[in-house]
Design goal:
It contains three helices and five strands; from the N terminus they run ααβββββα. The protein is an alpha+beta fold and 92 residues long. Strand 3 and strand 4 form a beta hairpin. The two termini are 17 Å apart.
């Protein structure tokens, strides 16, 4: 599913004009993005939690050349599904 698919679903289910549906979806994603950039977590009840996690530097290996390289520290986005989401996904 893509962002456009979500916009189309809002259009079909809620009867919102596509322009308004697009604005709503963009606003939600922008809010999520800016909250994560600020270092805060996002908890959506019944869905899950998004967090920013810091990963330290480590040694890696180029699979082609087998040469060791240092992987720099970085931040990654993690997602942990809620119990409700896990239960409903296991029913599929």
């Amino acid at each position: 599913m893509t962002k456009i698919d979500i916009i189309d679903l809002l259009y079909e289910k809620m009867g919102l004009p596509k322009k308004e549906a697009r604005e709503v979806v963009e606003a939600v994603f922008d809010t999520i993005k800016h909250t994560l950039i600020a270092g805060e977590s996002i908890k959506i009840s019944g869905f899950g939690t998004f967090n920013i996690r810091k990963k330290g530097s480590r040694k890696g290996r180029n699979p082609r050349t087998k040469q060791e390289v240092e992987i720099k520290p970085r931040k990654v986005v993690t997602f942990k599904a809620s119990v409700d989401l896990k239960k409903s996904s296991n029913k599929i």
